[in-house]
Specification:
The complex is a heterodimer. Chain A is mostly helical. Chain A has helices at about 1-10, 10-20, 25-45, 50-65, 75-95, 105-115, 130-140, 140-155, 160-165, 170-190. Chain B has a five-stranded mixed β-barrel. Chain B has ten helices and eight strands. The chains are: A mainly alpha, B alpha+beta.
């Protein structure tokens, strides 16, 4: 009981130390992150419920196997998102199916964020614009979509994105700019005007 | 979602899944760093060979061959080594990026460091240990298909019609005649009646030499000057009469 109480109150980094001594504590780490990671899978990969759960399970197994590799100079959330990201991409490669963008419950918040990030100055009360943004997002490359999701939906900082995607911070800035450009180009191709 | 938590914990409890040890990750990191270092050293050795090959370009043959500067340069560049250098630099970059902290640095910074390290070590090993000469010599003698893949300087020296020939001695000199195979594996009889030869040329079996003279008959070459395959400084030294 003492151990469980300890687990609940600990920071992520301390919790890892405890998990390595008592595997039962892993439950608390899963509980802290399962909803976030599940949302991230849905946002990035757009898998159905069953596949999402399978992937989520794979991710947490991978995290457990690699606990000793956790670098305490990173935020734990960046590290777990990195593993999730790698698993999503490798799952996508295995299936050879391009990840489909599917918005979750917070799709409108995301679309609001992305609209302001992309300087879309239309009336966002007009719901058809959300449909147009989603249509364009489906078309852009996964490498650009993932930075847009991390920035506008997961609301990660450039440093956190750099740690998740294992790229220099400067490259993240470049990727976001390119993602915006590709978004506008795809919108033009589809004759959607924002 | 409870279901997933239970499944994961069950898999862990049944011992099917265990955390990899810290030592495993430390060894992995060490091997990545070691690999990156070894690749930089290899790139430096290749760079030494590139420097050596460029220094060894026989500019004095250009008028004799009647080639323009661009053709001469195009034929003389050590492409295989340059390609190897680019390849090794690329792999070294990729390997460095796999280290724990490698992704923090921009491509230009990592490439800059790798290229600078290759340049410094390559130049030093070329200047102090003649590494480039050693590698080139070994490659010419022992690396299968190297001479066919690396036409450059050899192509320049494969012009018997224009009085230029080079290759490996297969029978040492007897009665002013020696047998030589050129880089196309063709056998020549080289006659050295009144030829001059560099003091560094010993004319032993398997020595690589280059000759200036004239083609006398099919696979018979009259030598006027015999030089060692490598060593520009040696070429400027005074020749001894045979």
């Amino acid at each position: 009981m003492q151990s469980i109480q300890n687990c609940e109150q600990k920071s992520d980094a301390d919790l890892i130390t405890l998990i390595l001594q008592d595997q039962g504590c892993y439950k608390y780490l899963i509980e802290r992150y399962e909803n976030k990671i599940e949302r991230y899978i849905k946002r990035l990969a757009g898998l159905n419920k069953e596949d999402t759960e399978d992937l989520l399970q794979d991710i947490f197994i991978k995290v457990y196997q690699n606990l000793n590799a956790f670098d305490s100079s990173l935020k734990f959330s960046s590290w777990i998102y990195r593993i999730a990201h790698n698993e999503i991409i490798s799952n996508w490669r295995k299936r050879k199916i391009k990840p489909q963008f599917v918005g979750g419950d917070e799709i409108e918040a995301f679309l609001d964020n992305i609209a302001s990030g992309l300087d879309i100055k239309k009336d966002l009360e007009n719901k058809s614009i959300y449909h147009d943004i989603k249509k364009v997002l489906k078309q852009i490359d996964i490498k650009y979509r993932e930075v847009l999701i991390l920035k506008f939906l997961e609301e990660k900082s450039y440093e956190e994105m750099a740690d998740i995607l294992r790229k220099p911070t400067g490259t993240i800035g470049t990727l976001i700019n390119r993602a915006k450009k590709q978004f506008k180009k795809e919108a033009e191709k589809m004759e959607i005007k924002f | 979602m409870k279901n997933i938590t239970d499944k994961i914990l069950n898999q862990i409890k049944t011992g099917k899944t265990k955390p990899k040890t810290k030592f495993w990750f430390e060894i992995k990191e060490f091997l990545i760093w070691f690999g990156a270092g070894a690749l930089v050293v290899l790139a430096a050795l290749v760079f030494a060979t590139v420097i050596f090959n460029i220094q060894e370009i026989d500019w004095q043959l250009r008028p004799r061959l009647g080639w323009g500067l661009s053709k001469f340069l195009f034929i003389s560049m050590p492409y295989i080594w340059l390609l190897a250098l680019i390849g090794l630099t690329g792999i070294a970059y990729y390997t460095f990026r796999q280290t724990k902290q490698g992704y923090h640095y921009a491509l230009t910074i990592i490439l800059g460091i790798i290229i600078l390290a290759s340049l410094i070590f390559g130049w030093a090993s070329h200047s102090y240990f003649m590494t480039g000469r050693l590698i080139e010599g070994r490659a010419m003698k022992h690396l299968p298909y190297y001479n066919q893949m690396m036409p450059s300087r050899k192509a320049v020296w494969m012009n018997p019609e224009k009085g230029i020939l080079a290759g490996k001695i297969i029978k040492p000199i007897v009665n002013n005649k020696l047998e030589l195979t050129d880089f196309n594996k063709k056998q020549w009889t080289v006659v050295c009646d009144e030829c001059s030869k560099s003091p560094m040329v010993k004319l032993n079996q398997y020595d690589l030499i280059k000759i200036i003279g004239r083609k006398d008959a099919e696979f018979v070459f009259m030598a006027e000057e015999i030089w060692p395959m490598f060593g520009k400084k040696i070429m400027s030294e005074k020749f001894e009469r045979k």
